[in-house]
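ARCHIVE CARD
CATEGORY: sequence design from structure
SOURCE FIELD: tokenized fold
FIELD CONTENT:
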């Protein structure tokens, strides 16, 4: 448990809320979904779906209440397209959705599994039926990326996680046109040694804009003799200069505890790529992959997370 402190993030009692058995076509596993609320209040999850070759594509699931009654597209919503986009050779994974008011479109930033490892790709959509691909925007090895919903000082901003083996930190890059990226800056470093977030970290869902700054939920990968443990921590970045770290929690706030999180294709993984925010502007529903096998839901409060950071950084 979380060191006897009040729980910041609470699991839904009906977890896992989506599994491969729910899919209308044969799939091996469903996990790491992006999430957004459509204008009519429908929750849309863009799920990573792994087939029995081990390749992933994206498939939309829609629900009126965000918990059950999911309508799943009868075919892959966004299949990999390696004929036109060779970087998608081994599939597409781990999407993050950002609604961009200036474009009146959703930006989907996802991992393209290239022959040289994972890179970051971008597509825009108005409706989750047609997708305009921008191709690879960060070369391999890079992943765990999301676009900020608005320009910062006139430029688009992307948080991402390039690998400089054996360590991997979070960076931000800027672009005038979503195609050409530069002004790369390190924003959050993986710690060293025994820390839960030593050596390898990455953005989880897209940053959450609050009056206090950008609230970032990130994952830390603890490497142990028995394998890796993926847990979540919190950080806060300046609203106008998102490369400026304001606060970082020392302890993780969520980690694998339930059987569906500890056991699966890759045990001991909780991996959210999306959330929705309730009408109160404070309740956050985190949708996460559990053990690279199923999709689960947990709920929290943005103000409680900010309060926790105030006390724990
Ligand atoms: C990471 C991610 C996820 C996955 C996790 C655990 O590298 O990119 O795709 O959930 O590994 O296997």
């Amino acid at each position: 448990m979380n060191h006897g402190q009040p729980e910041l993030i609470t699991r839904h009692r009906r977890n896992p809320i989506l599994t491969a058995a729910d899919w209308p076509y044969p799939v091996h596993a469903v996990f790491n979904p992006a999430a957004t609320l459509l204008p009519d209040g429908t929750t849309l999850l863009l799920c990573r779906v792994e087939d029995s070759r081990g390749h992933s594509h994206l498939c939309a699931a829609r629900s009126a209440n965000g918990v059950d009654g999911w309508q799943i597209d009868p075919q892959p919503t966004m299949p990999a397209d390696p004929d036109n986009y060779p970087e998608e050779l081994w599939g597409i994974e781990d999407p993050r959705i950002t609604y961009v008011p200036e474009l009146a479109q959703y930006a989907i930033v996802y991992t393209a599994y290239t022959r040289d490892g994972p890179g970051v790709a971008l597509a825009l959509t108005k409706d989750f039926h047609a997708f305009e691909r921008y191709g690879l925007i960060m070369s391999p090895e890079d992943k765990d990326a999301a676009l900020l919903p608005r320009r910062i000082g006139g430029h688009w901003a992307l948080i991402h996680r390039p690998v400089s083996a054996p360590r991997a930190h979070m960076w931000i890059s800027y672009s005038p046109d979503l195609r050409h990226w530069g002004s790369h800056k390190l924003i959050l470093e993986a710690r060293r040694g025994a820390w839960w977030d030593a050596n390898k970290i990455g953005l989880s869902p897209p940053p959450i804009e609050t009056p206090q700054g950008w609230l970032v939920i990130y994952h830390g990968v603890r490497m142990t003799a028995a394998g890796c443990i993926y847990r979540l921590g919190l950080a806060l970045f300046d609203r106008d200069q998102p490369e400026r770290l304001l606060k970082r929690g020392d302890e993780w706030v969520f980690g694998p505890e339930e059987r569906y999180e500890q056991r699966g294709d890759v045990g001991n993984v909780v991996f959210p790529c999306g959330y929705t925010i309730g009408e109160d502007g404070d309740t956050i529903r985190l949708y996460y992959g559990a053990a690279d096998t199923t999709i689960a839901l947990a709920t929290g409060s943005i103000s409680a997370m900010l309060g926790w950071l105030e006390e724990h950084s």
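CARD ANNOTATION: The chain has one domain: 9-312. The longest helix spans residues 302-312.
SHELF: design records, drawer C
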